[in-house]
Input
Amino acid sequence: VEDLLSPELCVCRTDDGRLVEGLREAMLETVIPRGAGDRVMVVLGEHAGKVGRILEREPGRSRALVQLQRDAGGQVVPLGYDLICHYVGGLEED
Output
């Protein structure tokens, strides 16, 4: 997701670099990183907007154990796959 046009519409960049405008949430699929330690952003719920690292994945329960970054006190929370997505943004300054 590159930009939000409204609460319902966004602009996304494809793997080949093309921009696609006017996409609705129902048209998107959440990408969950495969490795432990990969970064995710919380996109829904109480911790929305926070970035963290996957400590453990629970595919059978469709959730991951995530340690939120320092601004959240390093809190560890179980989050459903629908609440998180792969985060490829920059690192926070320490």
About this structure: The beta strands are 3-4, 9-13, 19-24, 39-42, 51-58, 63-68, 76-80, 84-86. DSSP finds no helices and eight strands in the chain. The two ends are 26 Å apart (CA to CA).
